[in-house]
Specification:
The chain folds into two domains: about 120 residues, ATPase, nucleotide binding domain (Nucleotidyltransferase, domain 5, 2-Layer Sandwich), CATH 3.30.420.40; about 170 residues, Nucleotidyltransferase, domain 5, CATH 3.30.420. About 45% of the residues lie in helices and about 20% in strands. It has a six-stranded mixed beta sheet with strand order 3-2-1-4-5-11, with helices on both faces. It is globular. About 45% of the residues are buried.
């Protein structure tokens, strides 16, 4: 039997941590773990625990680990410390640290174009000039960015619900749905949600109720959806301008928070059409791109947003 290259790929976002590896005998192993949000504990300890568990699947000589994840330490030294800790626990020869959006882009577009992924968070990467230039847009974490994401829409929906509670306008329908969804009362809603374990995840889970109410015509929910669509249109227009895009520049959206048959994607198509632009939808999972990247000779056009650390 010819030995295959042992590799491990990780897609880590707000919805979960997905691991995929290839063993020396060619076996492909997939595992999924609970998501991790910065501020909810030690990122390094979280990944050390996950990798310790995953390598027990039968890995003996790992050539490369590719981590395409949303949450990474905020400093170069912090990222390198994380990488060296993971190299030690896995015994891998090298580790690539990159964005989960890089994995989404690689899985979706082989030429020039923009991929905007909308999940718990949001991020976009555009590649242009025959894959010689890369431009990152939006994202910036749930604390100061991620406009249009599931967390952002859920947060805005809860904000409008609470504004109605205390008489500042808002939406009675959003308040009613929030109380039902979180199984609490109006006076306790804010404290209840912020005290939840993994509050970012649980706030993001409210987003589908916001879009459902928007489809039903609720003014506050509709306003939230339109604000999200504004962000996604701006991302597309900005990417085309910065990269001086031509006709072969693809615009693609993906992610669980922007379903193809949902109101956000429908309104987005309509808004782009007014600008003589069109878009595509992709249901390819980020882990596919991360796993494919693990077999590439180098990060290619993603080299500016990928740190390569060797043992």
């Amino acid at each position: 039997m010819v030995a295959r290259r042992e590799v491990i790929a990780v897609d880590g976002g707000g919805g979960g941590q997905r691991f995929r590896g290839q063993l020396a005998d060619g076996t492909i192993t997939d595992r999924e773990y609970v998501s991790f949000t910065l501020g909810e504990g030690s990122l390094t300890e979280n990944y050390l625990e996950r990798f310790t568990h995953f390598v027990r699947e039968g890995f003996t000589s790992i050539e490369r680990v590719v981590m395409a994840v949303a949450a990474l330490p905020g400093s170069v030294q912090g990222r390198r410390d994380l990488a060296h800790s993971l190299l030690k626990v896995t015994g891998a020869q090298e580790l690539w640290l990159t964005s989960d959006i890089a994995a989404a882009h690689f899985a979706t577009i082989k030429g020039d174009g923009l991929v905007t992924t909308v999940g718990t968070g949001v991020g976009a990467i555009a590649v242009g000039k025959n894959r010689t230039r890369l431009h990152e847009i939006s994202g910036d974490s749930y604390l100061i960015g991620d406009e249009g994401s599931a967390f952002w829409m859920g947060k805005m929906g809860l904000n409008r619900a609470l504004r109605h509670k205390d008489g500042r306008g808002g939406s009675e329908a959003l308040l009613r749905e929030a109380l039902k969804f979180y199984e609490t009362d109006a006076d306790s809603l804010a404290d209840f949600v912020t005290a939840l374990d993994r509050p970012v995840y649980h706030i993001a889970q409210f987003a589908p109720l916001v879009t459902t109410l928007a489809e039903a015509g609720d003014p506050s929910a509709t306003e939230i959806v339109e604000l999200a669509v504004d962000e996604f249109v701006q991302i597309a227009v900005t990417a085309r301008r910065v990269l001086e895009a031509g006709e072969e520049f693809h615009i693609v959206y993906s992610g669980g928070a922007i379903p193809e048959d949902g109101v956000v994607y429908t309104r987005l198509q309509e808004r782009l059409h007014l600008l003589d632009l069109s878009c595509e939808y992709s249901d390819v999972r980020n882990i596919e791109g991360a796993f494919d990247l693990a077999f590439e000779p180098d990060p290619g056009v993603y080299h500016t947003i990928t740190e390569v650390v060797r043992a």
